[in-house]
């Protein structure tokens, strides 16, 4: 298959689905995958219908659909499921590809996973995604950490989908005058 997507998202529960919709609404083509493939089909026939999504039914198909360097955003249950998905993804990915965990993982786990994934030639980012369902859809607060070399590849996506301050939004559209705070 020809690579079509800018990023892939694994996990189509409420947060994952809303995050995928946010990415697509900002102009990114998104591949989606869920361990229960019926969720992929429901999403593609429901909220994702007619939009820039590719619904994959296998991890191999999912990975093949991603442009290089591949960026895989995991929205799966924290803990062991993240480690299990990382181990499933590593053999399918190429050096320099990026695994992102969006599950608000405890920092020591992010440090451990970063070291492990980098030892396999890949890059890793642990990312806190805050703001609940609405934030995921309209602009979450995102707190990434991990492989510094990955930032250049995920920066446009992360900055595109994340929350912006109200004052910055108003200043950008000319509706407010931004005055620096002084002491």
Task: Give a verbal description of the structure.
The N and C termini lie far apart (58 Å). Helix 1 packs parallel to helix 6. It is built from 8 helices and 7 strands, in the order βαβαβαβαβαβαβαα. It is of the alpha/beta class. Helices cover 41% and strands 18% of the residues. Strand 2, helix 2 and strand 3 form a beta-alpha-beta unit.
Give a summary of the structure in a few sentences.
By secondary structure, the protein is α/β, with parallel strands linked by helices.
Q: Name the helix and strand elements from N-terminus to C-terminus, one letter apiece.
A: EHEHEHEHEHEHEHH
User: How many helix segments?
Assistant: 8
Portion in helices: 40-55%
Proportion of β residues?
15-25%
Distance between the termini: 58 Å
Quickly give the structural class: alpha/beta
Walk across the major sheet and give the strand order: 3-2-1-4-5-6-7
Describe the sheet with the most strands: 7 strands, mixed
Low-confidence stretches: 169-173, 175-179
Q: Using only CA atoms, what is the Rg?
A: 17 Å
SS elements, strand count: 7
Mean pLDDT: 90
Principal-axes geometry comes out as globular
